[in-house]
Amino acid sequence: MSVDTLVAILVSGFVAGSLYALMASGLSLVWGTLRMFNFAHGTLLMLGAYAAWYFSDSKGLDLGLSVGILVALILLALGGILLYALLVRPFIARPGADLVVIITTLAGASFLQNSAQEVFGPRYKQLDRVVKGQVEILNTAIGLQELLIIILTPIVLLLLALFLKRTKLGLAIRAVEQNHDSALLAGVNVGRIYPLIFAVSAMLAALAGIMLGGLFFITPVMGSDPLLRAFIVVVFGGLGSLPGTIVGAYVIGIIEAIAVFVVGLYWAPVVLFIVLILVMILRPTGLMGGKE
Amino acid sequence: MSGRGLGLSPRQIALWVTGIAIFLLLPRVITDPYLLHVAILGMIFSIVASNWDLTLGYAGVFNFAHIAFFGIGAYTSGILAVRFGISPWIGIIAGAIAATIVAAIVSVPAIRLRGIYVALLTFAFAQLALALIVSQTSFTGGISGLVGVPGLSIGDYQFREHPVAYFYLIGAVLLASTLFLRRVVTSDFGLSLIALRDFEEYAVSRGVPLARQRFLAFLFSSIFTGVAGALYVHYLLVASPEVFGFSLGTLFLSVILVGGAATIYGPVIAGVVLTYISEMMAPLGPIRFMVLALLIIVTMWFVPQGVWGLLTRGFSRRNVTLPPEGLEADPDSPYGAGEEPGPAR
Amino acid sequence: MPLNVDRVSAGYGKVVVLHDISIVVGQGERVGLFGPNGHGKTTLLRAISGLIRPSSGSITFDGAPITTLSPREIVDRGLVQSPQGNTLFPRMTVLENLTLGAYAGHAWSQRRESLERVFALFPKLAQRQGQLARTLSGGERQMVSIGMALMGKPSLLMLDEPTLGLAPKIKDELAEAISAIAATGVTMLIVDQDIELLLGVCQRLYYIENGRVSLETREGERIDRQQILEMYFGTAPR
Q1: B179, B16 in Cβ contact below 8 A?
Q2: Mean pLDDT in consecutive groups of 10 residues from the start of chain C, 238 residues
């Protein structure tokens, strides 16, 4: 294998890993606090991309990329809270809540996906890249946008980790994750933590959508594959472990990049699926999961 | 509910007879070929949804691979007919077998895992199946699908020239499927599924074989689903990847939930009704699925037991709550058995 | 009466655990609850703290009704519990756990002083500040649990089985600490199986059986240890 192929694989692996890390972190936060899975998470990525496009593109409101990105993040944070209020909160106290929430969020995903198609039409859109152009590293041409993703994502994740570790609110979130009843008894306003988690989770997804939209096309179904990868990542990295999830994301990203190179684009998902099955059978708690 | 036979009371037998009579007479009343078409599709979807109710509703297993059973039944029969010239009648049986094999394979990792893991696993599997079908263009026709699938025929009698034949055949299959499902859920096996769903730890401690029962539930639910898939392609005369798709899956889900999970009858009736509504909305494009999705959400808000559940059980919902100091399982463990402390119980 | 539980019935779903139960705790009093396992003592404390809503009856604290308040609001008013069992945050340090105890409003700004007081009471915790809670021994976990409750600056402190499952030597340590806390004058409601502990600290006892009060000792009344032990164990221990 030549150097530039290797670099290409690494770059695409890290880009994918970054996106999956953003997506999976959001899922992990929701799972950690609520013990539920948000199947509409992929559509949040998609909506983030569309929102950024709509506000920035000349065919939309034409307000420029920075405005587009900012508005997209804010809108999606609100959207996450709305999603929580409509599709999750009404069901929390019911028995079998986690299955119900899977169903309602699946329905929500269907609704959002089709709304996007209805509103924006089926033709692909393209979001502007934040940074255009390329750079040469080790004799290989690498897009600056890709580089930005690879550098920016760990920074965002680091900020997230600091927030969780150092702030009072972050402490409260971790408390709810680790012992729900004790958090209640300590006086944490658990009812306000949940929507906050959804807002953060949605913003992370939106960020992923914005970055992805700049690299590829924006379509109503663009969130579906990243969501699936994110699922694989959270299982692989260990449900309930944020560090495990982040590490797992990059590992899965690299595995995918290698798989694409070795068996081709169509069979790569099979490889990932086999990874998923193996993890579930051999080490279901994931890389770093399993608590108490 | 008695555990033997079909467990039908006189009143229920009367309902059945009425239903069958209506069914037999329907084609006399419906002259519009489009309505007949919708009825046929509706019955096929009823088969799929009511069988899905077995794993989703009765066994309480988050099986999201069910749509793959349908799709595999469809493509197996379609490919055999188009690529290998095999008779559709044999194809239907092959479709059922293929679906059952797939169900067996998927269920092996799934049955020991806890709810959410099963959901992820089966969901991923369904996506995988879709991806594989789309990629193997030479076999499957790729994204545009497989055309030229032959219709059913007996000798020179071509079903596609007499759609009524499809109506009666598929109706008969629906009847058989429903009888089969009713037999399963009223049997001791069915009761054990419900026990596992609602009181898993207790049932297991009383010797109910968790893995085996769930495995069988997967298998049983796939048989007629595979048949339905094959019937679908031999009716429409094409096999397209949408049989694995999200949209169709949403429709099936709405049929189960609006009809009533764990009722069998609910999805059977809702299948026809919702398919009708869905087809009526077809000109609206994506709005059609938005409406179905909203229907699911509204149902879960207000009538989670579904329409049939509402009619038969009233407003009481299945209510199982356990004291928090009861069962302290590791909530992140993929192995279930028992509730764990979580948000507001 | 700072705490007045008046004919409360409560349970989980269809299972009723508490039947019309009534207890009172006076200002500065130390009251003990004892009785067989699974008969509602913990359920009662959970109901008081707002984790369970009573189906009938009322609970008043400092004259104001708290029956329908959220756990957060109840803690805000100074009614704090150190619950039974697995109650710490396992992947957080001792320091973080204690800090969380002071989460509610007024306690947060005073958390540094509160922390010093807790460390003075439990020097072992000061040593193990940076350790993760899940690596602590049973006795140390109890200390953290009680410490967390103290961080909330309670005007009424409830302890649910503080010495459950601990070795006698640790029990003694904790009993001393609990006496020291009692000496500061804070009102206390203690649930425990160790009658000796309760008799050593409390002025009044309730015996709870089948979700009801079966026996209540009056304040000032000389508590007949023999009678209680007999009732608890069926016969006098040899």
Answers
A1: no
A2: 86 85 90 86 92 91 91 92 88 93 89 92 91 90 93 93 88 90 91 84 87 76 65 56
Q: How many CB atoms lie within 10 A of CB B72?
A: 27
Condensed to tens digits (0 to 9), the pLDDT of residues A10-37 reads 999 999 999 999 999 999 999 888 888 8
The pLDDT of residue C235: 52
DSSP for C153-205 reads --SEEEEESTTTT--HHHHHHHHHHHHHHHHTT-EEEEE-S-HHHHHHH-SEE
Neighboring chain B residues of A106 at a CB cutoff of 8 Å: 250, 253
Residue that is written with structure tokens 């049955």 in the block: B111
Please identify among residues 251-280 of chain A the ones whose CB lies closer than 8 Å to any CB of chain B.
266-267, 269-270, 273, 276-277, 280
**Residues C175, C171: Cα–Cα separation, whole Å:** 6
Q: Return the residue of B nearest to C51 by Cα.
A: B344
Closest CA to B129 of B81, B91, B76: B76
The answer to whether A94 contacts chain C (CB < 8 Å) is no
Residue A270 · residue B132 · CB < 8 Å: yes
Helix B188-198 crosses helix B210-236 at what angle (to 10 degrees)?
Answer: 110
Count the Cβ atoms, other than its own, within 10 Å of residue A163: 13
| Structure-token match 């068996």, residue found | A263
B316 contacts in C (CB within 8 Å)?
none
Q: ∠ CA(B269), CA(B275), CA(B280), 5° rounding? A: 135
Separation in Å, CA C29 to CA A7, B328, C76 = 73, 34, 21
pLDDT digits (tens, 9 = 90+) for A70-128: 999 999 999 999 999 999 999 887 777 888 899 999 999 999 999 999 998 878 877 77
Does an H or E element contain C32, and which? strand C30-34
What does the alpha-carbon distance between residue B215 and residue B221 come to, in Å, rounded to a whole number? 10
Which C-chain residues 71-130 have CB contacts (< 8 A) with chain A? 71-72, 75-76, 80-81, 83, 86-92, 96, 99-101, 103-105, 108
C134 touches chain A (CB under 8 A): yes
- Cα A213 from Cα C135, distance rounded (Å): 46
What helix, strand, coil percent values describe chain B, rounded to 5? 70, 0, 25
The residues, ordered by sequence, that sit 6+ positions from B322 with a Cβ below 8 Å of its Cβ are: B338, B339, B345, C12, C13
> In which residue are the tokens 């928090």 written?
B324
Nearest CA in chain B to A269: B128
A157-205 tens-digit pLDDT = 999 999 999 999 999 999 999 998 899 999 899 989 999 999 999 999 9
Q: What b/e readout covers B3-30, taking b as 16+ CB neighbours within 10 angstroms?
A: eeeeeeeeeeeeebeeeeeebeebbeeb
User: Between chain B and chain C, how many beta carbons pairs sit less than 8 Å apart?
Assistant: 21
- Residues in A touching C47 (Cβ below 8 Å): none
Quick one: which of B221, B322, B212, B280 has its CA closest to B41?
B280
Per-residue pLDDT reduced to its tens digit, B82-102: 888 888 899 999 999 999 999
Q: Which residues of C touch B (CB under 8 A)?
A: 12-15, 17, 42-43, 46, 84-86
- In whole angstroms, what separates CA B88 from the centre of its chain? 22
Length of chain C: 238
Question: pLDDT tens across A242-281, in order?
Answer: 888 999 999 999 999 999 998 888 788 888 888 888 887 7
Q: Cα–Cα–Cα angle for B221, B321, A91, nearest 5°? A: 70
